[in-house]
Amino acid sequence: MIRRRRLAIAGIILAATALAGVRQWVLARDCRRRELRLQELVRQAAGTPAAFRAKAVNSPEGVAVRSVLTRVEPPPNSCNWGTPGGAARYLDDLERAIRRDLQWRIPPPVFAAPPLAVPLRIDGMTAPGEWDGAWRSDGEYPLDSAERESSATRWRLGWDRHFVYFCAEIADTEVIETNVRHPYRDDSFEFFLLPDERLHTYFELVFSPSGAAYLRTAVQSARQRYSLEPEAPAGLEYRVGRHAGGYVVEGRLPFAALPGYLLGNPPKPGETLKFMMVRTDRDAAGRYRRTTPFPACGDGHNLAVYATLRLLAPAAD
After folding, report:
1. What pLDDT does residue 18 have?
2. DSSP string spanning 252-313?
3. pTM of the entire structure?
């Protein structure tokens, strides 16, 4: 009797070991197949708007996520993909996003604007005629969409000999802001400015409806997704004004603080600036979305979809 029980237990152990081995083999096979698909997507994405998202595959975070599945090295102590299931979901979502970005066919827009005739007052309020001559866009496009939504939100970008001016009039009757340190996680306006794409350095400026700001200098190259330093461009001025229908963000940056202009050389007609504007919005139900003034895919850091502002000569009298 005892011997039969021991044999039965031994059989159960052997069966469980065999089943675990099969599961491990299936997991390893799936990991290999996923790895081949992801690396092929990285290859296909080169030189396209999908390249930004594809860089996440071989970034330090991407390597760490895959290690959760292979157990080559232990995962970080605190992450939302620290289990095999979480890691698999992360990689599956990333794969779908890269494939979606590979279908993006809308070229980045090119705009043009002469210098503003009169320096703007940065006060968080807009007056009729104040932004005349600046680049202007009304309405919103959900990020990753080519469908324009009718909206009272307005976007502005202008310049003169000394400054780059930016403005967003955000239509929002349900303002949510709970994260002062990271305002982009709730309601905010994000302004990205790339003065000279040859230098790979740009600014991420994020403003909450209450005036809290998240200001970063970013660096990005062909292989590096991006790195951030908590440094704002010298001389940045901004104001945020609240009203019943939403909020207004106005700001300006001195050209002398921008890469490409640091030696004091003034802007000249024919030169260009690359930029992106993003509105982040969270409603009371917790739904989160991002919108832009023109169609764009990926993220506010996706330099491949930034718009170009071409500086024009002053209008003739």
Report:
1. 47
2. EEEGGGSTT-TT-PPP-TT-EEEEEEEEEEE-TT--EEEEESS---S-TT-GGG-EEEEEPP
3. 0.87
